[in-house]
Design a protein that fits this description.
The complex is a heterodimer of chains A (432) and B (444). Chain A contains 13 helices and 16 strands. Chain A is an alpha/beta fold and 432 residues long. Chain A folds into two domains: 2-18 and 80-178 and 226-375, Alpha-Beta Barrel (TIM Barrel); 20-78 and 377-406, Urease, subunit C, domain 1 (Roll). In chain A, strands 1, 2, 3, 4, 5, 14, 15 and 16 form an eight-stranded mixed β-sheet that branches. In chain A, strands 6-7-8-9-10-11-12-13 form an eight-stranded mixed β-sheet. In chain A, helix 5 (195-222) packs across helix 6. The longest helix of chain A is centred in the middle third of the chain and has 28 residues, at 195-222. Chain B is an alpha/beta fold and 444 residues long. Chain B folds into two domains: 1-77 and 375-444, Urease, subunit C, domain 1 (Roll); 78-372, Alpha-Beta Barrel (TIM Barrel). Chain B has twelve helices and 16 strands. In chain B, the strands form two sheets. In chain B, strands 1, 2, 3, 4, 5, 14, 15 and 16 form an eight-stranded mixed β-sheet that branches. An eight-stranded mixed β-sheet of chain B has the order 6-7-8-9-10-11-12-13, with helices on both faces. In chain B, strand 1 (24-31) and strand 2 (39-47) form a beta hairpin. In chain B, helix 4 (186-219) packs across helix 5 (232-241) and helix 4 packs parallel to helix 6. The chains are: A alpha/beta (432), B alpha/beta (444). Chains A and B meet through helix 10 and helix 13 of A and helix 2, helix 7 and helix 9 of B.
Chain lengths: 432, 444
């Protein structure tokens, strides 16, 4: 009973972020616009009204009450979307009281990240400094960690921030151990059981159980003589996944396991997004053929295995992009949120097309996460989630000057780092 | 006297570069000298591991290979002032509280693949050290990343030996709730250091007394008295008190840094640098006045309570107030992109690009005590060099080549060629490689 009430509460909570209505319009004037969908516009203007982009063009006329933001010499991009993070779930990783990402147990598909997100986390404000305006927040741990929420990086309360309270269900796939080297092959027996395949069978079994639960419920609804199965929150939570309403994000690393995941997705008829894919380059054509998008993980990492090359973490992304796989970048954690554009820059440095890298920060995640009607590009009718920057936003030395989320100008200076900077810059020289 | 000094310096340079220094002419790169302005399209002549000439239109002596660096950026090899790579086994001796008797020099692993990975990021020398579990930990050592050489050959000759100290959460084991080891507070950490200082003083007194008694006995023709029991730990602490070891002190909070600085001044200990020093920006004036450096992070933060009160402007704030601050890695992953971490000091805190480059070159060398030999591109210095395809602070920059003592130990073009050949073999039906054998290191 308690669980039922809680579920109702979450549904009520899921009033998604409505762009600000009634605020005075904003005209961004004379910027170098990079709409992502469509060609760049030199000396372009953007009119923002009621939180949305009302017009884009050259020489737009500002309404009389409009606030004008001069973008001369600046570049204007749609806000970046961090496609896998832990904003608000993890504050200080070594302090258990500030961690809310990892529940006990293996199968927790009923858990909602949205219940635990702290909207006041310091990591949101510091990660906005690099252009991020939205993020998927995902729990971790076990086989079914729960449901990820999609949030905007601004708002007083979580309901004000939420774009999708249950944007995706997560599944952690097993990782096949590295095949033994020559020396080990000579001395050790090969494992007889393919452990990863067995574990995937177990995941499929859980989904089958959820389907059986649904059939029992349906049967009881049709026939009053039958009693429905006892309420099971886990199987309930999996129904939108089985219906194909909600995507599943499968976290997977090795080439062999990616292939397992692709066949699993096809057999189960799920809407699958892969996450991680450190060896995706080895099976990129299969990923592309399956039409499955990939969320790239934290790129502050070495190669998955030595044979992937010293630069394997980055060439992997470039290779998948060349094959035409739809890619999204992610930080992987609240702490790395600030580094999202740098991850993209690493992929570009090692061979990814730069414009494709920008799409992988904007329109790709918007499409993959089902919010392309609102986010991911500078287009009339979309939410005014954008930023003005001094240069290429993938360059570490570029400075985001102005950011709008839902048509509201975000106070970029209101962040923990700046607070410390202001306070300690003012310290007088100590008497020696 | 002056001549003697010059001769001595030359001998030192030769000794430190060691036998096997390579020769090359790096042609036409944009040379970030660090010692002075960046030179557009300049040549660097390296003979036997030493930079002999920097300028335009230099001639390669017969037999000296020319490396085309036109359109590329040449900088001094990156120096990672805080590392734990190239060490065999663990780096924390948690069985005892104070462990200066342990020595990283005993466990140098010249085959650690991380040495190669460091080279791929342009890193040419590192200070590798004991962990942070102990208020006074083991001794650390500065290494040249002579991939392919033996452990003794890796040692940076002439570099001062160091000892690792640690303050705060790690030595008090704050994040290991089950630990019952003393100390559990910062007070206990400082007390344990002070206690062993006094113990070492007593130990030294006991030996002095013994030597006096032994001399007297010898004079009187009497049998020598029994000596005190030898204590290897207190002998190293005595070396610390004598200033023979440079202290590298892991610390986060400004308050504990000021406390340990006071303690070191009281006992005459050489405190070379704080490690991480995430709150060093708060006390930059005090650190500058005391001549204490900081092997900092650019913006790695927030992973524990003592790492929370910081900001990526920290390094710039330290540099602006005269602290010798380096951007260091403490990580086999981060060390491969120290140039990008240095770029963050431009974005946050407003260092100039040249100042940012200093934080991963000459400042790190100064902290490690190797600035006489490395850290700038200057005639007479070791030819430890990194070549990038773009300015090293450009987020798209990729290290193309790394030289140590004039030897090319990483060449991206060669790696790519080898990779292409392997892929071609696999396409032709050869089985894919299954071994974990690292690529052959060594001098080219």
């Amino acid at each position: 009973m308690k669980t039922r009430l809680a579920l109702v509460a979450v549904v009520a909570l899921g009033l998604s972020t409505a762009p600000a209505a009634g605020a005075p319009p904003i005209l961004i004037r004379n910027g170098h616009l990079v709409p992502v969908v469509g060609e760049p516009i030199a000396g372009g203007d953007i009119l923002v009204q009621d939180g949305r982009i009302a017009a884009i063009g050259v020489g737009l006329v500002a309404p009389p009450d409009a606030r004008v933001i001069d973008a001369t010499g600046l570049f204007v991009y749609p806000g970046f979307i961090d496609a896998f993070s832990t904003f608000g779930l993890e504050e200080i990783s070594s302090i258990a009281a500030t961690r809310d990402s990892r529940e006990l147990g293996r199968d927790n598909p009923e858990l909602h990240a949205a219940w635990a997100i702290n909207p006041d986390t310091v990591h949101i404000a510091v990660s906005r400094l690099n252009g991020t305006t939205a993020a998927l927040v995902a729990p971790a741990g076990g086989t079914f960690p729960g449901q990820a929420a999609l949030i905007k990086m601004n708002g007083w309360t979580l309901p004000e921030m939420l774009l999708a309270e249950a944007a995706a269900t997560l599944i952690n796939f097993p990782t096949t151990p590295r095949p033994p080297g020559e020396a080990a092959i000579a001395t050790e027996e090969k494992p007889k059981v393919d452990l990863a395949a067995k574990l995937v069978e177990r995941i499929a079994g859980t989904l089958d159980d959820a389907r059986a639960y649904r059939r029992l419920k349906d049967a009881a609804r049709r026939d009053p003589a039958l009693s429905p199965p006892p309420f099971n929150p886990k199987y309930e939570a999996l129904q939108p996944v089985l219906d194909g309403e909600r995507p599943v994000i499968i976290t997977v690393e090795k080439a062999k396991d990616i292939e397992l995941a692709l066949s699993f997705a096809a057999q189960q008829k799920l809407r699958v997004i892969l996450h991680g894919c450190a060896q995706g380059y080895r099976v990129a054509s299969a990923i592309k053929a399956a039409g499955v998008p990939v969320i790239v993980d934290d790129l502050y990492t070495g190669p998955s295995e030595y044979e992937d090359g010293y630069d394997g973490a980055w060439t992997n992304v470039a290779a998948m992009a060349r094959e035409g796989v739809t890619l999204c970048f992610s930080s992987g954690s609240a702490l790395n949120g600030k580094d999202l554009p740098t991850f993209a820059a690493r992929a570009v440095a090692f061979g990814m097309d730069r414009d494709e890298a920008i799409r992988a920060l904007t329109i790709n995640p918007a499409r993959v996460l089902g919010v392309a009607h609102r986010l991911g590009s500078l287009e009339v009718g979309k939410d005014a989630d954008l930023f003005l920057t001094s240069g290429d936003p993938l360059q570490i030395t570029s400075v985001v000057q102005t950011m709008l989320i839902g048509g509201e100008v975000v106070d970029l200076d209101a962040n923990w780092w700046n607070e410390l900077y202001e306070r300690w810059s003012a310290r007088p020289r100590p008497a020696s | 006297m002056r001549t003697l000094n010059v001769a001595l310096a030359a001998a030192l340079l030769a000794a430190s570069a060691g036998a096997g220094g390579g020769s090359a002419l790096l042609r036409g790169g944009n040379v970030i000298t660090v010692a002075g302005p960046t030179l557009q399209g300049a040549d660097i002549l390296v003979v036997d591991g030493i930079i002999r000439q920097v300028g335009e239109n230099l001639q390669a002596p017969p037999g000296v290979p020319v490396i085309d660096c036109r359109g590329r950026w040449v900088m001094p090899g990156i120096i990672d002032a805080h590392s734990h790579i190239a060490l065999e086994g663990g780096v924390n001796e948690t069985g005892a509280l104070l462990t200066p008797e342990t020595d990283c020099a005993d466990i140098i692993d010249p085959e650690d693949l991380d040495i190669f990975y460091a080279l791929t990021g342009g890193v040419t020398s590192i200070h590798t050290m004991h962990g942070s579990a102990n208020p006074i930990g083991g001794r650390g050592i500065v290494l040249k990343l002579r991939w392919g050489a033996t452990a003794p050959e890796m040692v940076f000759a002439g570099a001062p030996r160091t000892v690792k100290w640690a303050l705060g959460e790690n030595p008090k084991q704050a994040n290991s709730p089950d630990s019952t080891r003393y100390p559990k507070t910062r007070m206990g950490v400082e007390a344990s250091i002070r206690a062993i200082f006094e113990e070492a003083r007593s130990y030294q007194r006991a030996w002095r007394d013994h030597q006096r008694r032994a001399a007297a006995a010898a004079k009187a023709g009497k049998p020598a008295p029994l000596p005190p029991r030898r204590d290897l730990r207190l002998e190293v602490v005595s070396d610390i008190l004598a200033g023979k070891l440079w202290v590298r002190c892991h610390a986060y909070q400004a308050a504990e840094m000021l406390s340990i600085l006071k303690l070191c001044q009281e006992y005459g200990v050489k405190l070379a640098a704080f490690e991480h020093g995430l709150e060093a920006y708060k006390i930059a004036d005090e650190l500058a006045a005391a001549g204490v450096g900081n092997a900092a992070f650019a913006d790695f933060w927030g992973y524990k309570w003592e790492a929370f009160f910081t900001l990526p402007h920290s390094v710039a704030m330290q540099v602006r107030r005269g602290v010798v601050a380096a951007v260091a890695s403490d990580s086999a992953e981060r060390m491969r992109r120290l140039n990008l971490d240095a770029a963050k000091t431009v974005r946050f805190g407003g260092l100039t690009p040249d100042e940012a480059i200093r934080t991963i070159t000459i400042n790190a060398a100064t902290i490690c005590g190797t600035d006489r030999w490395v850290g700038t591109i200057q005639v007479g210095k070791h030819a430890d060099l990194a070549v990038f395809d773009r300015h090293p602070l450009d987020a798209y920059a990729v290290c193309q080549m790394t030289l140590v003592d004039g030897n090319v130990l990483f060449d991206r073009a060669a790696v790519l060629a080898e990779r292409a050949a392997r892929e071609a073999r696999v396409r032709e039906g050869a089985p894919p490689p299954t071994t974990q054998t690292p690529p052959p290191g060594g001098k080219s």
